[in-house]
Design goal:
- It comes from Cardamine amara subsp. amara.
- InterPro entries: Glutamic_endopeptidase, Neprosin, Neprosin_propep.
- The protein is globular.
- Strands 5, 10, 11, 12, 13, 15, 16, 18 and 19 form a nine-stranded antiparallel beta sheet that branches. It has a seven-stranded antiparallel beta sheet with strand order 9-8-7-6-14-4-17.
- The model is unreliable at about 15-25 and about 145-155 (pLDDT under 50).
- The protein contains five helices and 19 strands.
- It is about 15% helix and about 30% strand.
- The protein has one domain (about 45-400).
- It has helices spanning about 1-25, 30-45, 90, 125-130, 220-225; strands spanning about 50-55, 60-65, 115-120, 160-170, 175-180, 195-200, 210-220, 230-235, 245, 255, 275-285, 290-295, 300-305, 315-325, 355-360, 365-370, 375-380, 385-390, 395-400.
């Protein structure tokens, strides 16, 4: 009996030693995950010449212009940066930068040197808030409400996208121009968002929608707070794998050292108080095939049409308005996430959010004001968020839009 016990304990400790030795030679799952995070951060954050600490907590890295993420795109390996449009028709409309005006919070603490661009630093916490570290910076595929095939809507059961917007369709367009009021709507959950933007679209959902988008958004899962931020987005495959926000993947080529995509906007409208807006332009240069993004008079950069091939010639649809995404909390329960100012369109100026001086750009690169009656509207849930279209001599064609989300009529 005593011999059997001795043999048992001997074998037990040998087994323990083998297991411990084996584990010692391997990384723990948590260690492997940390390594993946570090590798992803290294991939996303390019070496900085200078770092600026913004009052909102962001770090803005000043990165050499030829070190920016765009050049990791296989189609842009040998791309030569174009610092400004070659076309006089686009260049003359820039009007020169208003260097004395600061639009973003980080600029109160410094500026990036010549030949660098500002890029918001992505942190470990940013990655951990994402659905996965591999897909950080990409949208979840929405139902194709803004696609040209709007009569064949699909519905994502996991998340719901709702819109209050207007659009022109079935044309040949070289861009979009409008002024967008800035607000800070309440967003209920980290995974939800609220935004105001313009869409420049071609293609269809089934064969790969191509879309260029820009405006302001509140998206805590991406940025870590509920501040309105300037953003840009692109996709060439209906929001599947190709495309991303800002500079979070190769694609968009930035030239400005004054404006940071994804950074907090400094001036926010208040209910019945001061109103703040900005002019946003997306315009295609025919000679080069570049789609330029302009904030006020600042040329931020461009999307080469080679990465959005269905926009190589022109866009088919231009849209302007608001969007929210939410995750239904049980049967029949709508989110409290707000759109625009959080107030309905009929409340009007100083109370509802707006787009004014709405224009599309034709194939001769002339801005054209569409008549209100020629705009189509998408209002997903008018009892939750709505829209009004109008025209005035001062504002041209405009919309008021938005709403509070859940209320006695929106459940």
């Amino acid at each position: 009996m005593r011999l059997n016990q001795t043999v048992f304990f001997f074998l037990f400790w040998v087994t323990i030693a083998v297991v411990v030795g084996t584990l010692a030679g391997k990384s723990k799952p948590s260690d492997l995950y940390e390594q993946k995070i570090e590798q992803r951060l290294k991939q996303l954050n390019k070496p900085a010449v200078k770092s600026i600490h913004s009052p909102d907590g962001d770090i803005i890295n000043c990165v050499r212009i030829y070190d920016q993420p765009a050049f990791a795109h296989p189609l842009l390996k040998n791309h030569i940066i174009q610092m400004r449009p070659k076309s006089y028709s686009i260049r003359d409309k820039t009007g020169g930068n208003k260097a004395d005006i600061i639009y973003q919070l980080w600029r109160t603490k410094g500026e990036c040197p010549e030949n660098t661009i500002p890029i918001r630093k992505i942190t470990r916490d940013d990655l951990l808030r994402s659905d996965s570290i591999e897909t950080y910076g990409r949208k979840s595929p929405p139902s194709p409400t803004i696609s040209p095939t709007i009569n064949n809507l699909q519905h994502d059961q996991r998340e719901v996208h709702e819109h209050a917007c207007v659009y022109v369709d079935y044309g040949e367009f070289h861009g979009s121009k409008s002024r967008i009021s800035i607000w800070k709507p309440e967003v209920l959950m980290t995974s939800e968002f609220s935004l105001a933007q313009t869409w420049v679209v071609n293609g269809d959902w089934d064969t790969g929608l191509n879309s260029l988008e820009s405006g302001w958004q509140i998206l805590k899962s991406l940025y870590g707070d509920n501040n309105p931020r300037l953003f840009a987005y692109w996709t060439s495959d209906s929001y599947q794998k190709m495309g991303c926000y800002n500079l979070d993947c190769p694609g968009f080529v930035q030239v400005s050292r004054d404006i940071a995509l994804g950074a907090v906007l400094i001036s926010i409208s208040t209910y019945n108080g001061d109103q703040y807006d900005f002019q946003l332009t997306i315009e295609k240069e025919q000679e080069t095939g570049l789609w330029w993004l302009k904030f006020e008079t600042h040329l931020i950069g461009y999307w080469p049409s080679i990465i959005v091939p269905k926009l190589a010639n022109s866009a088919r649809k231009i849209a302007w308005g608001g969007e929210i995404v939410h995750y239904p909390i049980g049967q029949g329960t709508h989110t409290l996430t707000q759109m625009g100012s959080g107030h309905f369109a009929e409340e009007g100026f100083k109370k509802a959010a707006y787009f004014n001086n709405i224009q599309y750009i034709d194939t001769s690169n002339h801005p054209i004001t569409p008549f209100p009656q020629n705009l189509e509207a998408i209002v997903s849930r008018p009892e939750c968020y709505n829209l009004q279209v109008g025209f005035s001599r001062r504002w041209g064609t405009y919309i008021f839009y938005g709403g509070p989300g859940r209320n006695p009529q929106c459940l």
